[in-house]
Write a structure and sequence with these properties.
- It is built from nine helices and no strands.
- The protein is mainly α and 232 residues long.
- Helix 3 runs antiparallel to helix 9 and helix 7 packs parallel to helix 9.
- The longest helix is centred in the first third of the chain and has 33 residues.
- The radius of gyration is 18 Å and the shape is globular.
Length: 232
Amino acid sequence: MAGIQEFIAELTEIGDDFSASVRVNPLVGRFVNGQVTQDEYVAFLQQAYHYVKATNPNLSAAAASLRRDYGDAKTVLADRLAEHAREEKGHHTWILDDLEALGEPRQKIDSVTICPAIQAYLAYFHHIANSRHAAGFFGQAYVLEGGAVSSSSVLLPALTERSSIPNIRQAVKFIKLHGVVDIAHLDELNKIVQQITDPADQREVVLSARVTAQLWLDMVDYVSRLELGVAH
């Protein structure tokens, strides 16, 4: 990376490209126009559960890795990751609440097949969290939290006002609350990335942002194929 402005510009481009891809995704389109099926929504929540559940422990591990490998040199980054870990604690239970409102027993989540994209996501970020590359988690947050904030205002009314899924108004806690809390998270994130000046950290953030964007889109494609009976 040549400098902070170039780094921010590249992150912004990744976020913009991700948002553009989300907008034209067929499954997301069915969410927006209220035509998403209950099976699709359930499958989406089931896959999201696994990466959301991993967020808190991974962020905690990433903070510990930065402190272990760099001492006081990256205290600001480590402190923010630790704080973010506390903020993310328990968010996966919102998904279980939504699934239960849709008639899916909470314990069923343990028997759901994790799709290849989320398996790759979990493996990648477990490695990142426990390595010298832990600063990469800011790239993950940049994509997921930016996406949550921008999509919540669209998906929430689409589901509650246009969807025919039974009991849908009681099954949108994850989308509603994540969109709300991530507004503050995104503000903090935009401040902290301005302090990521180490070129190696910048490269890790950019790579993690790209990985997150691609695997999230792959997850959505898996859910679409699952409905058609062709997912693998």
